[in-house]
Write a structure and sequence with these properties.
The protein is of the alpha/beta class and 294 residues long. 32% of the residues lie in helices and 23% in strands. It has a single domain, classed as Spore Coat Polysaccharide Biosynthesis Protein SpsA, Chain A (Alpha-Beta Complex), CATH 3.90.550. The strands form 3 sheets. Strands 5-4-1-6-11-8-12-10-9 form a 9-stranded mixed β-sheet. A two-stranded antiparallel ribbon has the order 2-3. A two-stranded antiparallel ribbon has the order 7-13. Helix 8 crosses helix 9. The protein binds uridine 5'-triphosphate (UTP). Uridine 5'-triphosphate is lined by residues 11-19, 28, 57, 106, 109-112, 114-115, 132-134, 258. Pfam families: NTP_transferase.
Length: 294
């Protein structure tokens, strides 16, 4: 029987330099796709997968994330007085229960591996999910739920992967696939940003993980890797010497909302998927006469 995954870590302490000046005072994870901040989508995905404790590793300017996951009594009272009960109900539904969120500071953005390590005391000696909120996934069920299903079979460490064109592998962490089906195969190696000719596959690590707590000690001693940052992939490579890793080629579509193109595309796709927005949005798009540009 596997130890249950109850806790999820959300690293939200990056500088978001690709999105300046929007991210000068606003955390990247509060950028909205239609009307929900990216961090809310990630928390929703974690709740759907059965996560009970939400750990945010924040940095400067991230107080607004803490406020987002808090009750806003003034706003709620106003909505109540104005009879906006549906909006009020939706706001309350978005919140994790009281006492089920924790916030810690990374202090310096030394890399994703360092951000994860900052959560070590809160997570303790337990397996945990790790969700990068700037990666948005549209899947049914959600990608973390698909990974939890694999975890129930295999335990150990789970990584969500997706295919990219071979010409793009050098921008990502790339895995080596062993035997097993798409929804749970042995992962036999990984490499961060390989040259195209050295890449072991075109399957990339895409921003959702289930990890065992032994990763924390490895990250503690991890020297700086690519880009002068403490890299999670380097820590996972070492952990692979002693623990099993399973890959899940998830069903669904991802949007890299840390990049402008991914973010804009996500807004279009999510807007067209909304019953209350689709028709009006399409009408405006038609007026733009995009055919000429496409
Ligand atoms: P990214 O590398 O996409 O984020 O990290 P970034 O550094 O903020 O973005 P750019 O490249 O400058 O535009 C993926 C996730 O890891 C977090 C980020 O907040 C993001 O959610 N992260 C990254 C940290 O929490 N701390 C870090 O030191 C680095």
């Amino acid at each position: 029987m596997q130890k249950r995954v109850r806790t999820a870590v959300f690293p939200v302490a990056g500088l978001g330099t690709r999105f300046l000046p929007a991210t000068k005072a606003l955390p990247k994870e509060m950028l909205t796709v239609v009307d929900r901040p990216l961090i809310q989508y990630a928390v929703d995905e974690a709740r759907e997968a059965g996560i009970e404790h939400f750990v945010f590793v924040t940095g400067r300017n991230k107080g607004v994330i803490e406020d987002h996951f808090d009750r806003q009594f003034e706003l709620e009272t106003t909505l109540e007085l104005r009879g906006k009960t549906a909006a009020l109900k939706a706001l309350r539904q978005d919140l994790p229960s009281a006492g089920r969120t924790s916030f810690t500071r990374q202090q310096e953005p030394l890399g994703l591996g360092h951000a994860v390590w900052c959560a070590r005391d809160i997570v303790g000696n337990n397996p945990f999910a790790l969700l990068l909120p700037d990666m948005l996934f549209k899947g049914e069920p959600g990608v973390l739920k698909q990974m939890m299903d694999a975890y129930e079979e295999t335990g150990g460490n789970i990584i969500a992967v997706e295919e990219v064109p071979e010409s793009e592998v050098s921008s990502y962490g790339v895995i080596k696939r062993g035997e097993g089906p798409d929804n749970g195969f042995r992962l036999t190696g990984m490499v961060e940003k390989p040259k195209r000719e050295d890449a072991p596959s075109n399957l990339i690590i895409s921003g959702r993980y289930i990890l065992q707590p032994e990763i924390f000690n490895l990250l503690a001693d991890q020297p700086r890797g690519a880009g002068g940052e403490i890299q999670l992939t380097d820590g996972m490579q070492t952990l692979m010497h002693t623990q099993e890793f399973t890959g899940v080629k998830y069903q669904g579509k991802s949007f890299d909302c840390g990049s402008k193109i991914g973010f804009l595309t996500a807004n279009v796709v999510y807007a067209l998927d909304r019953d209350d927005i689709r028709e009006g949005f399409l009408k405006e798009l038609r007026k733009l006469d995009l055919d000429e540009q496409l």
